[in-house]
Amino acid sequence: MRRAALEMIDTFSDSPISISNRPVEYSLEGAQEFGGGLMSKTYNAADGRTMIKVCLIKSLEGVEEEFRCAQSVKKIGISTPAVKYIIKCCNQYGLLYERVVNKISMMRMLSRNPEKVEEYAHTFARLSKELHSKDCDVAVFTNIKDRIRDFVSSYDFITEKERNDVLAFASSLPDCTKCAHGDLHPGNILFDGEKYYFIDLGGFNYGCPELDFGIMIFFVYLGVSKEAFEVEPPVLEKFLRIWVMDEYGLSKGEVDAKIRELGRYATLHMLVELKMQSD
Fold this sequence. Notes:
45% helix; 10 helices; 16% strand; three-stranded antiparallel beta sheet; disordered N terminus; alpha+beta; single chain
């Protein structure tokens, strides 16, 4: 991911709640794995009432941030499974959530039924627009512009000119207090047959909604969709194009230019993700 960020970064040169929750030792005995990706694995717990997310990369501090965000998102009325506590399992940290019965991620739905890509993409776009129109609690969540400035200022693997280009672009983003997921893609939407849920909320913030397109652009144009999610790249690219058209009310002839514009936001997303996954 770091190399990809460095390769893309030259696109810029052209122009709290306290946590007292301590990790609880937890066993996977009797649990059944049902999903996961590059960053985590998820299980249905043996008790039949909870699900387990084991983070493969995040430190305790990163898991604590996800715990805080998940609790706070629930309080502002966004549909997400209730988080119970932080766990330590197999020398890795994770979270215990209420179980969503008969759940399936939208990415898994797309993998199993690629012919339904248009239906799923329109639904995803509706959920995205609803999220991006919701006022965020600015006393609790982070302004994404501040997060970018703090993270990028600490990096030692980019040049001073590259840093200044990124910071200038981040400063030019419009001020906004609407909700943004921080890692929005169909793998982070669950469906139980009746209701959709947002998950993986460690990067939840407020600010420019364009940044929420970053990870999908990364998946599509750096070719990780097949490896990570068993979705063919052309299917995920079609999904992305429909999402962008619906979100911005564009025609097919206008969407390519918009996706090129959003490429800069993909680079910003990657730079933020580098820091969040290393913490």
